[in-house]
Prior knowledge:
Distance between the termini: 16 Å
Structural class: alpha/beta
Helix content: 25-40%
Number of helices: 3
Low-confidence stretches: none
Amino acid sequence: METKSINALLIEDSPDDAVLIQRYLANLRSAQYNVTHVSLLADGLEILKRVSFDVVLLDLGLPDGPVGLNTFEKVYAIFPIFPSSS
């Protein structure tokens, strides 16, 4: 069985949380995750304009972003993709 490769953008300002998430994803056997990590919302938004990702993992409390769902709305304006059901 071939392992699916998933390109993920992780926008997370906590280095410890970023390492924890990346380790967790590396241990999943259902897919291979290629993770690009940035610490700031501005950097994430800029990368999303240039690079294609399958999924975005987003911290809703970033130091350079609005609070909560407003952060999600900024990312969604650039990356309005929902996962497929397959």
